[in-house]
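Subject: sequence -> structure tokens, single chain

Hey, anyone have a minute? Need the predicted structure for the following. Not urgent.
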Amino acid sequence: MEIYSHYAFLIPLLPLLAFLLLTAMGRQMKELGTLLSIMAVLISFVVAVLVWTERLGAGASAYTWNNAEWLKIGGFTMSMGFEINNLNALMLLVVSLVSLLVQVYSKGYMKGDERINVFFAYVSLFTFAMLGLVISENIVQLYIFWELVGLGSFLLIGFWYYKPEAKAAAKKAFIMTRIGDFGFLIGILLLFWHMPGGALDFTSIHNAVTEGKISDATATWVALLIFVGAIGKSGQFPLHTWLPDAMEGPTPISALIHAATMVAAGVYLVARTYDVFQASPDAMLTVAYVGGFTAIFAATIGTVQNDIKRILAYSTVSQLGYMMMALGIGAYSAGIFHLFTHAFFKALLFLAAGSVIHALHTQNIHEMGGAASKMKLTTWTFAIGALALSGIPPFSGFWSKDAILAEAWHQSPLLFAVGIVAAFFTAFYMARLFFLVFTGQPQSDGARQAHESPSVMTLPLVLLAIPAALAGFLQLPGSALFEQWLTGQAPQGHHSSAVMIISTLTGLAGIGLGWFLYGRRGASRRVPESPGGLHRLLLNKYYIDEMYAVVILKPLSVIQLLLQAFDDYVVGGAVRVVSGTASWLGRISTRLNNGQLQNYGLVLVLGLVLLVLLLAGRRFIHA
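Reply:
Had a minute. Here:
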């Protein structure tokens, strides 16, 4: 019997309580505010662990509570509640753990910021929104939390609002993801229209799809519209441009967004509604190819970026592409397994990057160098994360990425080739980053004065390095332990020794090239860069932002100018005519009503003459 699952509602509720208390009394709490936020998510994590361990038992069934009647119209009733199954139990564990470690890290990173309690209040809201999204019992409830996640990201990306770049990045993230959210909303409405009785809980959706109560065409449209929402949140091409710009927020928030909350929400959405996607081969193919293209597209951009956080941001876009590609080719457990391992090594990489930025006071990797001798703990933990991301055995990223590539090997040679090439670029840009930051000679005064970060920041690095190194052993080739637990079915994935060898050699080749260009003694550490050509194309991110400016922003600017002119000269002109006439009549009335008897007599005579003329004219017309 599921006991702890009955109390799963406490997992998002505690961060919400912390947010409310910090919002109401944050200034008075001072140091206590940060501890309150950390304690709230710590208790949430403990409950999440209890729920997850309960799910490990054989025969554990999904638990649903939906007794809160939310909306009733005629015979239609929509309830709210929560549902616990193996997928969201895993997500609860990941989100709460990463959020906990990010908040502990933030206590040191944000020290001295006068708005630190506001920061922790926003993080608590963000965590609440993601946890609420994960356990939502129906798709409308999920959409509400989906929008709250967007609000949280807007507040945190633009936390340093006095920086123009941060304000612009926050607005860009909010607007770009709203485009995807609009598609998601239309998908929900279309699903509601075609669902028997308008039921939108996930159990009813599963039953309707599996029983053939929704046509293939409807399933295709619904799946594609849901995927539009996932494209926005998970930064898939072409709605990816907000994600690198989101690096203007504090580094702990970059870790939280990229590892376990906002971008993970899109992949989770596709997995949560996977029945609808499986009913449409066209939708599955779309997900696979968009994911595959995004994986290699973002990986190529990452090879030339010079901002340490932006390199990691493009790696996130690329890895999310891997996850989408896996879901699109039917490798459900492989995609979720990569989401699981990626959360740990990407949070580790961002927090370690934050440790470097905190010590060197720069984000430009060409202004770093030599950090390994002064920041040993940060160096070793970053190396573990980099090797996991590069797919080098035995680190976690190797096993999850290999599961995706093995399935692609059997399903689509083209997608397998795309995945292998993207893996090469990933290993290369991570080697480039590591050698430029941690080896060689310091390239700036900040690098020469580097020092290890305080223990409150390095402890989360150590704790994240453990699953980044070892989590992959949950799904070794041939064991299928993770897959069987997640799906409750017999293993269906493919494994290939050839794929393991190819992917390992690919990762090592990428690292080798990175070492040859940037790491070996005597290397230039800055490859000669042509002012034009391919390097300029990659450095400017294929000019996607510029294309949006020409194709979308400029036409919208013209429309805005036309509407502004209409408002100023047509609407404004009419208002000015009416107001001017009323003002003129008012002035005349004021002059006439001045208390002088002769003026009143004149008005009376004029009125009488006007009345006589009107009566005479009327008689003349009738005659």
